[in-house]
Amino acid sequence: MTRLNGLLAMVLLLAAGVSLLAGPVWVNPLALSQDGRVAAILIELRLPRVLLAVAVGSGLGAAGAAMQAYLRNPLADPGLFGIAPSAALGAVGAIWLGAAGVPVGPWGVPVLALIGAGGAMALLGLIAARGGAILFTLAGMMIASLSGALTSLAISLSPSPFALSEIVAWLMGALADRSWTDVWVALPLSLLGTACFVLVARDLDAMSLGMAAARSLGVEPRRLQALLVLGVGLSVGGSVAVAGIIGFVGLVVPHLLRPLTDRRPSSLILPSALGGALLLVVADSLCRLWPLAGGELRLGIALSLLGAPFFLTLLWRMRARGLQAGATGGWI
Amino acid sequence: MSSGQPRDELSAQGVQVAGRLADVSLTLAPAQVTAICGPNGAGKSTLLAALTGLLVPQDGRVWLNGGELAQMADRDRARAIGYLPQAGEVAWDLSVRALVGLGVMPWAAAPLRPGIGVAEQAARVDSALATMDLMAMADRAVSTLSGGERARALLARVLAGQPRWILADEPLAHLDLSHARTLMAALRAQARRGVGVAVVVHDLTMAMNHAARVVVMHEGRIVADGPPVEALSPDVLHEVWGVRGRWLGDVGEWALAISG
């Protein structure tokens, strides 16, 4: 496992290095010391963007691995708990208020997004704390549906066409035009969230045997649930707060890396964090390089464009091989 | 603490769960296989869950070595009582060794929690693998095992925790005759080593031939409790299962003849 982590970390470092140089303006690392503008591009534009990709990707990847382990379902996604849509609702609310003339300031979007994520976490805790995974998922889906409806309402009542386009663009998810402020929001939250998952890693292993057996092994369901919701809230809430909705990372990354591990959930959390970071760094670099009329390809759209066909191919191969009964982890 | 509770016993006293258990008292003895029998819905699994501490009864108490189970730390309880659930689910395609390794979890050292180290954990896993004759397939994926091998691996998971008590909920379901016998023999071997074993069994012949004690449940109550020959007498068979049957053969090789 440490070998996989080491390999992923090395590739991530390499990709991050190339990503720093890549863009509409390619940076020549040898020219750095001579040209102040190049250094400015690097430090003020490229570096925060790469760090954001790392923070958002690692948080989403780790959250996906933890959610799949908790729900014992390889198709689970961090969006399931309704935390991402609720954070998005908060962010949309901030943009809406800003357009309506309320001074929300530069911290408005991330702060309201985190309040949205916190609200979803509190609701989940209230409704489902004593229930099992199914009640939990249902409650999360209802919260997601409610947040989605409220977000649509905000869009339909948007104070100006400009606000409308800003909200829609933001919802698509992107890392363009972000600053160090966003890095300081996302990076600590992502790290704290991943730390929550590491704390419950062994509990998630025990969950492989089902809740009853896990409890008989000493797992405390409420501690597990609380740390899991906290971890998803911090990592996903933080990522939505700075980048909008970015799908597929939490679903696909654990899925791809699982066969490279011993398939214990605890062995998958760190690789998924590193793999998610790698995927976002690469995808965001490609977005930057892709010439598109009127700007660049949105990261959220790019991931779906790449991710969906890729996932369909995997499903096709799975279909060809036939479903393995019982052990869902051996799917692909 | 109740007075006069002997040290080494697992005991339910006046346990009630609405609609499932009505005032059930049962004291399990160490070094013995106790079979829990009864028709579907009799409350067998509920009683086992209460004895494991997974279900806190609405009334009554469960005692472990003189202490109340509901008051014990989860980890201490998990070290003492090994539970083999009915479904036998394994969510990910773990290797046999990783699966069995889950059993050591209550003992494993963790931050702020003293426990045994990695080497000792591996030794316990190896020992459990060897006991269940799984060494040769330790690195195989669980999905590649046959039903009998899988059942052995799941029991080995429980053995790796080296519990004082093993509570198994229908471990023989879906097993053919030979594998069922292997599994019962393994449970009896544990009992010879001093472990108290309670096992929910539907196959009355298995209970009759492999258990030292049989508890018969019906509609949430214990209706018979004693040596197999007494607890599964023709009268009990008729009262609980509604069949007219009699036992043919002799100790260890009883067969049930049903005439209506």
Automatic annotation (TrEMBL), chain A:
Keywords, alphabetical: Cell membrane, Membrane, Transmembrane, Transmembrane helix, Transport
Topology relative to the membrane: Multi-pass membrane protein
Pfam family, one: FecCD
Keyword Lipid biosynthesis: no
Subcellular location: Cell membrane
Tree of life domain: Bacteria
CDD domains the record matches: TM_ABC_iron-siderophores_like
InterPro entries the record matches: ABC_BtuC-like, ABC_transptr_permease_BtuC
Family: Belongs to the binding-protein-dependent transport system permease family. FecCD subfamily.
Protein name (Swiss-Prot/TrEMBL): Iron chelate uptake ABC transporter family permease subunit
Originating organism: Novosphingobium ovatum
UniProtKB/TrEMBL annotation, chain B:
Superkingdom as given in the UniProt entry: Bacteria
Xref: InterPro entries: AAA+_ATPase, ABC_transporter-like_ATP-bd, ABC_transporter-like_CS, P-loop_NTPase
Any coiled-coil regions, as ranges: none
Keywords assigned by UniProt, alphabetized: ATP-binding, Nucleotide-binding, Translocase, Transport
Pfam family for this entry, one: ABC_tran
Record-linked PROSITE patterns: ABC_TRANSPORTER_1 (PS00211), ABC_TRANSPORTER_2 (PS50893)
Molecular-function annotations in GO: ATP binding
Domain ABC transporter: 5-244
Function field: Part of the ABC transporter complex HmuTUV involved in hemin import. Responsible for energy coupling to the transport system.
UniProt xrefs under PANTHER family: HEMIN IMPORT ATP-BINDING PROTEIN HMUV (PTHR42794:SF1)
Protein name, per record: ATP-binding cassette domain-containing protein
Organism phylogeny: Bacteria, Pseudomonadati, Pseudomonadota, Alphaproteobacteria, Sphingomonadales
